[in-house]
Amino acid sequence: MKKAKLTFLGTGTSSGIPMIACDCPVCRSADPRDKRLRASVLVEYGGLTILVDAGPDFREQMLRQDVHHLDAILLTHNHKDHTGGLDDIRALNLAERHPVNIWCEPYVEATLRREYGYAFAEQKYPGAPEWRVHVIDGTAPFTVHSNANEEVLEWERGFGYHHLPPQPAPDISVEIVPIRGWHHREKIIPVLGYRFGNIAYLTDIKMLDSDAELEKLRGVEYVTLGCVKIAEHHSHPSLQECLDFFEKVGARESYITHLSHQLPFHEEFAAMLPPHVHPAWDGLVLE
Amino acid sequence: MKKAKLTFLGTGTSSGIPMIACDCPVCRSADPRDKRLRASVLVEYGGLTILVDAGPDFREQMLRQDVHHLDAILLTHNHKDHTGGLDDIRALNLAERHPVNIWCEPYVEATLRREYGYAFAEQKYPGAPEWRVHVIDGTAPFTVHSNANEEVLEWERGFGYHHLPPQPAPDISVEIVPIRGWHHREKIIPVLGYRFGNIAYLTDIKMLDSDAELEKLRGVEYVTLGCVKIAEHHSHPSLQECLDFFEKVGARESYITHLSHQLPFHEEFAAMLPPHVHPAWDGLVLE
User: What does each C-alpha distance from A267 to A31, A255, A273, B89, B223 come to in angstroms?
Assistant: First the structure.
């Protein structure tokens, strides 16, 4: 089984922690592990650098890790806290001289076309984001390749990018397994989790589509799931639903992400969880 | 003439400084004044708290100033670096129990409807942003009122907000003067600057619409303009165009904002400017 390295860039719910205008003890905590940007992870896998989700903190997250190169962005679903920072890939276009490859479901692409219309326009505003969207249906493993295989962008001042043919580059690619889940018990909003060999990253999944998805997680060493509060929630699992999921998967270590200020302080929360289940924090590395 | 207090929350161009994946000396500067979030200002004026623009750094900017209350957001134009953070007003909705009032031009509202469709939906996802858009045409002064005069939001778990009638509140309002400019010499993208009594905030304006707009700036004590580089630029004024504008306005002190890493270090840039013209920085207060 191929090994991945995963860095949590953000482990907060849609509002992050602290939340604007909130004076609760968790939002006012001095523990750096209680400061949570919006949920996102950076995965190094099979020679590729892959980001999962690019929420509003994308720029800050790239700066903190001093990222100079991204082969691919995988999107879990179309909510703003997972897609709101995509405009800032412009800086990577300039540095890498390649479009950024994005993998997502058709309905997520439709949202990008609406919310980033200027990046899909025929006649682009000079400097608008350059990306290539690869659509997946989430039923079968898919292959992600290096962005070095993509066309070359040449900047012309006052005009924008010219698109030149790809230059010969080593053909590096990896296979990723999508996991079908739903953001809501009524199966309204589809979400994808992703398995990278020994690590599976899932968030914003209230329930898996079926037990067949659970089979796809067999044998992982690390698994994550999003949880915003201990009690029942309409679109995220309760803590008990998380623990049940972790037990079914049976990973060596399990991590909770997408935390809100409704959960206890990081340290208190860690202490109340079973062995091998942990709250993640911004900057935590699994490898 | 009424006095305003203006705090620069961000003084950077669309990519901010540092820019992702950039190793230039300005992006690697240790001077905190060389760290620039996306352009935005907080204005206290006539008893109201008014934000101009809400780019992708909106959450971070609200947290840095510990903002608990906003009466209004004025938008200068529809580019992502000025509107990309609006989803995060959700936290203010929860804290203030009022919608956030947004003032902008009709074409900017159209962009919001496209890029934040879920906030305009008939049947909203629970917790989606609650705002009220007030459309202005930019030709005449307009009145901004306290958000305390707006309907009351009552949260119901699992459902979302109920909208209740406004509760009696003191009627505080102020008049703001819009200044018509263009983002491009060919007058393609309209932009509004705003005058708050003794202070006028303008950015992303390559040229004013006409000399009539200049008249609206007569007598200001402080004025700003955006500049991304010293040389000619297709959509922002060159440094010389900025200096010419500042001379025509004749304010006591003039500030350059929306800076990019193509300009020198803050300290070097400040030293090369005429007296009474200064680069702004994140956190600078004018009053």
Answer: 9, 14, 10, 29, 48
Which residue bears the tokens 């020994």? Answer: A198
CB atoms A62 and B158 under 8 Å:
no
Question: Would you say the C-alpha torsion A255, A260, A262, A266 has a positive or negative sign?
Answer: positive
The token duo for A262 is 């409704």
Token pair 């001095």 is found at A30
**Region of residue A169 (left: phi > 0; alpha: psi -120 to 50; beta: else):** beta
DSSP-derived secondary structure letter, B247: H
- B174-to-A234, B144, B285 alpha-carbon distances in Å: 41, 5, 21
Measured in residues, chain A has a length of 287
Query: Of B273, B271, B272, B267, which is closest to residue B281 (Cα–Cα)?
Result: B267
Contact across the interface for B20 and A92, Cβ inside 8 Å: yes
**Domain ranges in chain A?**
4-286
Q: Could you confirm whether domain A4-286 is CATH 3.30.420.40?
A: no
* Contact between chains at A95 and B21 (C-beta distance less than 8 A): yes
- Give the CA-trace dihedral at B168, B162, B122, B101, to 10 degrees: 40
Domain B4-154+173-286, CATH = 3.60.15.10
Instruction: Nearest by CB to B91, from A21, A56, A88: name it.
Output: A21
- Which positions ≥6 away from B40 have C-beta within 8 Å? B8, B9, B10, B51, B52, B53, B54, B55, B57, B58, B61, B82
Q: Is the dihedral of CA A232, A234, A236, A241 positive or negative?
A: positive
ipTM of the complex model: 0.96
Q: What's B147's DSSP letter?
A: G
Cα–Cα distances in angstroms (integers) from residue B280 to residues A96, B3, B63, B249, in the given order = 31, 19, 20, 18
Q: How many C-alpha atoms does A265 have within 13 Å on its Cβ side?
A: 10
Distance from C-alpha of B9 to C-alpha of B280, rounded to nearest angstrom: 10
Q: Which of residues 82-111 of B touch A (CB under 8 A)?
A: 84-85, 87-88, 90-92, 94-96
Asked if B22 and A126 come within 8 Å (Cβ–Cβ), the reply is: no
Would you write out chain B's pLDDT as a tens digit for each of its 287 residues? 899 999 999 999 999 999 999 999 999 999 999 999 999 999 999 999 999 999 999 999 999 999 999 999 999 999 999 999 999 999 999 999 999 999 999 999 999 999 999 999 988 888 899 999 999 999 999 999 999 888 999 998 878 899 999 998 888 999 999 999 999 888 889 999 999 999 999 999 999 999 999 999 999 999 999 999 999 888 899 999 999 999 999 999 999 999 999 999 999 999 999 999 999 999 999 99
Residues of chain A in contact with residue B69, where contact means CB-CB under 8 angstroms, are 21
